[in-house]
Amino acid sequence: MSDKFDYIFAENSFLAQLAQIVQEIGTEAYLVGGFVRDLLLGRIGKDIDIVCVGSGVEFALKVAQKLDENISVTTYRNFGTAMFRYKEWTLEFVGARKESYSRDSRKPVVENGTLQDDQHRRDFTINALAISLNKQNFATLIDPFGGVEHLRKKIIQTPLNPDITFSDDPLRMMRAIRFASKLAFDIAPETFEAIIRNKERIQIVSQERITDELNKIILSDKPSYGFKLLFHSGLLHYIFPEMVELQGVEAVGDKRHKDNFYHTLQVLDNLSEKTKDLWLRWAAILHDIAKPATKRFDEKVGWTFHGHEEKGAKMVPHIFRKLKLPMGENMRFVQKLVRLHLRPIALVKDNITDSALRRLLFEAGSDLEALMQLCRADITSKDHQKVKKYLANFDKVEQRLKEIEEKDRLRNFQPVITGELIMQTFGLKPCPEVGNIKAEVREAILEGEIPNALPQAFEYMLKVGEKHGLKPLKKDTPMQ
What we know:
By secondary structure, this protein is of the alpha+beta class. 53% of the residues lie in helices and 11% in strands. Among the domains are: 6-153, Beta Polymerase, domain 2; 154-239, Hydrophobic Seed Protein; 419-467, no CATH class. The chain has a 7-stranded mixed sheet. Helix 14 runs antiparallel to helix 15, helix 15 packs across helix 18 and helix 17 (308-322) runs antiparallel to helix 18 (329-340). The mean pLDDT is 89. Residues 29-156 form the Poly A polymerase head domain. Keywords: ATP-binding, Magnesium, Metal-binding, Nucleotide-binding, Nucleotidyltransferase, RNA repair, RNA-binding, Transferase, tRNA processing. InterPro entries: HD/PDEase_dom (IPR003607), HD_domain (IPR006674), HDIG_dom (IPR006675), NT_sf (IPR043519), PolA_pol_head_dom (IPR002646), PolyA_RNA-bd (IPR032828), tRNA_CCA-adding_enzyme (IPR050124).
């Protein structure tokens, strides 16, 4: 591979403009890090990292002024960094620096340095690459640690002693696995062994930073690879012990259960082939999370996990809170899918009733398609005929659900009989009787006894009220 990259600037007008501005300003500067790595992998990203010798903040302000005097530059003077957006590009600037660390913190003591100092502080050889923007050695690739060769061999390796690299900043262990998972690279043996030796150091890193890396692993094309590296390195035991508990197979006589850790990873991979939705992928990770807690052995039927879907749903908020994941709508989505993930599987029988289908429509609501995606991914049998049969049955279930939905309009079903209407009709104040009447009307709709329409539901509500000894103040159906 050539160490001159003039063609990149010739082919990209903005990079050529950027190089011209750098040379006009006269500050020593280089393209660095992920932008250069991805460039060598054949793709030009839109996030550009630039290292300069001197003040990164002052340099950023000068570049922005020459590009467009109206650009707003965000500066972080305590860290010596700055960034701004220009058209479709995001540029980040930092002054070249060298770092030293104390044992109890991943926050370094920073001093001004040279490009070589800056490359020495980088996490991996493939991220320690630089391309000069300077007139005297323009477009030259500077590769002090063999990063180009490691890109060719698909290897993640630290530039310096990996024990020092990971002890100084333990988050780099997560980053090593994230890059391996994202790029489908191997981690060099000595680098991986250092992760194993330093795994407990991850405990000094903030949960937010750990979870950010974990989410990036989950979003890789084949996330099981990253999770296997986390597991075998021992990092997973510190950052997500609930998942580690899924691993292993127990046997009584000739009766064994499957390894739920590797099953979960297969479900995650299956789902990842169909969607990049982070929260749907989290539902795959957590769908069987309560199996260790609900595992029982029965002499007649073997191993059982009764109620793992309900217990798993109850575990979701605790896990989200501990991992500092968002506790709002995304958490509730994952919780719903964990609770319901067995329901469609039970509906593949030929004699399933319309009422069971209505209940699934009612409970899944707008998340039905996501639930069905999860259930399809959950079929991990090695028997291809069995998988084919289950998928065909799911096709039938989805068709019947579509027919029921078109007929009964139960998607995102909101009962037409509200608590307020019940109280107005019977002259009641808030009390358990109101909830009981409302529940009976809802059940009648789900059982198909009455349609999901106000006139019929109101008439049914009057009958329920009379059964409870209540007399209506008015019997006219209210206007919708």
